UniProtKB/TrEMBL annotation:
Residues 163-187, 253-272 are annotated as: Disordered. Keywords: DNA-binding, Nucleus, Transcription, Transcription regulation. It comes from Anopheles christyi. InterPro entries: TFIIF_beta (IPR003196), TFIIF_beta_HTH (IPR040450), TFIIF_beta_N (IPR040504), TFIIF_interaction (IPR011039), WH-like_DNA-bd_sf (IPR036388), WH_DNA-bd_sf (IPR036390). GO terms for biological process: transcription elongation by RNA polymerase II; transcription initiation at RNA polymerase II promoter. This is General transcription factor IIF subunit 2. PANTHER family: GENERAL TRANSCRIPTION FACTOR IIF SUBUNIT 2. The keyword DNA-binding applies.
Amino acid sequence: MSKEAEAIRIDKELDLSNAGRGVWLVKVPKYIANKWEKAPGNIEVGKLKISKQVGQKAQVSLTLSDAVINIDPAEEIPRDHRLDVSVVTKQTLGVFSHAVTTTRDDPVPECEKQYMEGRIVQKLECRPYADNCYMKMKLESIRKASQPARQVKSLEKIVHNYKPVSDHKHNIEDRERKKAEGKKSRDDKNAVLDMLFNAFEKHQYYNIKDLVRITRQPISYLKEILKEVCDYNMKNPHKNMWELKKEYRHYKEDDKKDDDATKDTMSDSDSD
């Protein structure tokens, strides 16, 4: 394991002291969940009432508190709900929580401890009673859902619309500059090779900018051809410059050496 991985690794411990405790999994309507999310953490959100008679299932009900109902008075929601209970038999579900400990000098977590809060033994689904408040809330939700996203409105005054600029000044100037310079188009490969060989007859080394200026070819197309017939120097004194490969070089100095070698051979043969 690398040092960086060791630095960010957090030791985790699992506390199983509450593993045998039974807990409930409750599903509530969205409008209750929204109210509870807006509620501060120091208020009572509701009361749970459990009543059981001999030979019958337990009756569970939930009554929301006034503090939750009045969070948004314009949005009226039912106060009383029943909870339908079902026993969990074919699944093993648990509730976990975790706590991270840090130091004042070092905010990086030192240890993360996990707790098993209990095992889910019952599922409960919260359902409202079909009273006037619930029916009024459903009608309001249906009315909002039926409203179209866009509406037609009659205008009594003239509305000045400012159309967006179809083309910006810098784009126009850039196109004019490219048109003035002339768009580089690909020439025939043999024609480009002729231009390159003619250029290398004058000088042994060229940078890419000079070759683009001489051949007037797109730089990507030019580099493809250069890689076939040229070598790219990576070291000084001709770093970042192109020169012909050895098999394509025919410089005057080489011709002179060949001529000198021919003269020496002829003089040796004459002496014999």
